[in-house]
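Morning run. Coffee first, then this:
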Amino acid sequence: MSQNASSIAQRYFDAWNRRDGAAIVATFADGGTYTDPLTPEPLTAAATGAYAEGLWAAFPDLSFDIVSMTESATGLVCAQWLMKGTNTGSMNGLPPTGATVAVPGADFIQVDGDAVRSVRGYFDSGAVPRALGLDVIVQPRAIGPFMFGTSNRTTNGSTATPGAFSITCLEARTEQERNAVRDSATKVLMEMLAMPGFISAVTAAVGDRMMTITAWESPDSMTPLMKGGEHRSAVGRFFSPELSRGGHTGIWTPARLNPRWVRCDACSAMVNSEKSEGTCRCGAPLPPPLQYW
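And here it is:
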């Protein structure tokens, strides 16, 4: 039994190292499951194969070096491993970084007969993002009336004064849908960066709510969005059964934009950048003012 358990566990790792999703699925018994710190619930064998395919898309050379393997008389195999790979593909909608990761971990594999009954993986879930230069944020979901989430900003460096803001808000139903919205939003933002009149955009995800607020030079600047590309495709998915629980969009124009203030590095005075023409009262040159958005 113990020798068979080891060989079954090794067959499971060999399938990972060959990057063969079908072979991974084939190692599982009927009803077998996989869990690790990144899976919100146990995965079926088929879902485990799909999970592996997603990792290989981001890390095409992903491999597991087995450091040690021990087993019990009941067919429980403990395998200590080092996962290695280079991020040359997109992960969670982000562009590849080219960074190499080496993450230690361990799997507890319960073997039943000639198949895997369950795999429980343990590793530092923040190790891969940190290796890729990503922030790992730990925060509560909500405290009283306050909800927490994540955000990012995209800009082409324009210092133009906004003449309009567009706001898009969707509410996702599942984690898969949240990932789909993130992927689509990234593609739309890449299209926006090339559009005349685009200034910058801020995206935010708080719970199931996903928002994008974009600054434009004028309301007409965003007209090309509806003529084609990913944005128009996303609108079609929104009005099909495919995407989100609901949402809204709108175009807002500024009622009042106060002057931008900037602090002088020489005398620490706060100066109205609109009137200073780049020079402080003390005669020192001023830093450039902040972008409006």
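The longest helix spans residues 175-193. Good start to the day.
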